[in-house]
Design a protein that fits this description.
Helix content is 40%, strand content 14%. The model has no long low-confidence stretch (mean pLDDT 96). It binds pyridoxal-5'-phosphate (PLP).
């Protein structure tokens, strides 16, 4: 099977899995237990926390809270801090951000303000800044867009937001960026969400990075784990495997970035331009290439590709549960419904090879031409 849906999830790293194995089967103790076997796991968690955090932030200014996924991290940030006045986000956000904003609107807690996107999928920064005023309590801008791959300069945006209102809490969803795009969080970023399964970790493990001086309201309360910020017995195996997978991923981040940029362009060059139009910008993440077979249905192409052994996405895997047939992100970039309907998302991993890209190109061209003929 040719797997080109790595933005939905990646194959777990076997090396990281083997290294962490003992934490599932031998050191299975409860890390909150008082006896030595349990207590010893606290220092392992501390090492993992520090390893994951230090890759993107200064440990003297930031700390990391383990969660069960990127969605939980986003929810905790939003429900914890978008509490009064208005809160600003973008039209490009994953539903893990857009749905909590809608929920807070329904509850009458905040007035949500949504900044538009540019054609390349990045947020229109001047429009975003125009929405920030003295009543803004919270701003959330995703780092890398999961459908079209656009990269927002979150440090620059956070700085400009704080210049307008220094009391704003600034959050960024870094789920598609962590381990893939070089970044050091600046002092203007308060909260940053990450998830293990996008970089060779397991599903069900995530973290919320927070500025140390910020008091994070707990979202789950109970046994007081994670210094009271997130109760629930820690998934020690999943966390250790995440830390090992991140270690691997960050050690090749730059080389992967360059190699995948080349592969992404090879894929695009090979596609039949009478069928496919490019949506992803050249300066977006090399991990995602979004294209549209304008006039055809992306979902039909997805199944045709699947039958030929190629796995691709049509947008966010999570939005397959959504009511709308069209990708709201592609529409928000200013494309029409036909383009949005024909969207396919091809997403890469460091293990993707040129041979796989060539095979994917052949299949995509075959099915695109076949469906075009049948539509006539
Ligand atoms: N945010 C973005 C940008 C994503 O791409 C995803 C997953 O696709 C999430 C959040 C949700 O992460 P998780 O699957 O860990 O809940």
């Amino acid at each position: 099977m040719l797997y080109f849906d790595n933005a939905a999830t990646t194959k777990p790293s076997e090396t990281a899995f083997s290294r962490a194995r003992a934490f599932a089967l031998e050191q299975f103790y409860n890390p909150s237990a008082l006896y030595n076997e349990g207590y010893a796991l606290q220092s392992e968690l501390k090492k993992a926390r520090s390893a994951l955090l230090s890759k993107v932030a200064d440990e003297s200014a930031f700390e990391l809270v383990f969660t069960s996924c990127g969605t939980e991290s986003d929810n905790q940030a939003i429900f914890g801090f978008a509490k009064r006045g208005n809160a600003v986000t973008t039209a490009g956000e994953h539903s893990a951000v857009s749905a909590p904003f809608a929920e807070l609107k329904n509850r009458g807690v905040i007035e949500p303000r949504i900044a538009p996107l540019q054609k390349d999928g990045r947020v229109d920064v001047s429009a975003l800044l125009a929405l920030v005023d003295e009543k803004t309590s919270f701003v959330s801008v995703m780092h890398v867009n999961n459908e079209v791959g656009a990269i927002n300069d979150i440090n620059a945006i956070a700085k400009a937001v704080k210049a307008k209102n220094p009391r704003v809490i600034f959050h960024s969803d870094g789920v598609q960026a962590y381990g893939k795009i070089p970044v050091r969080l600046s002092k203007d970023v308060d909260l940053y969400s990450i998830s293990a399964h996008k970089i060779g970790g397991l599903k069900g493990v995530g973290a919320l990075i927070k500025r140390k001086s910020l008091v994070l309201p707990p979202y789950l309360i109970g046994g007081g784990q994670e210094s009271g910020r997130r109760s629930g017995t820690e998934n020690v195996f999943g966390i250790m495997q995440f830390a090992y997978a991140a270690e691997e991923k960050f050690s090749t981040l730059k080389a992967d970035f360059e190699r995948l940029t080349t592969l992404r362009e090879r894929l695009w060059e090979g596609l039949d331009k009478s069928v496919y139009t490019r949506i992803s910008a050249m300066d977006g993440t090399p991990y995602i290439l979004s294209v549209s077979a304008v006039g055809l249905r992306g979902e039909v192409l997805l199944h045709m590709a699947n039958d030929k052994g190629l796995i691709v996405g049509t947008g966010s895997a999570c939005s397959s549960n959504a009511k709308s047939r069209y990708s709201k992100i592609v529409l928000a970039c200013g494309y029409d419904e036909k383009t949005a309907d024909g969207t396919l998302r091809l997403s890469f991993s460091p293990t993707t090879t040129l041979e796989e890209v060539q095979k994917a190109v052949t299949i995509l061209n075959e099915i695109g031409q076949d469906l075009t003929r049948r539509m006539k």
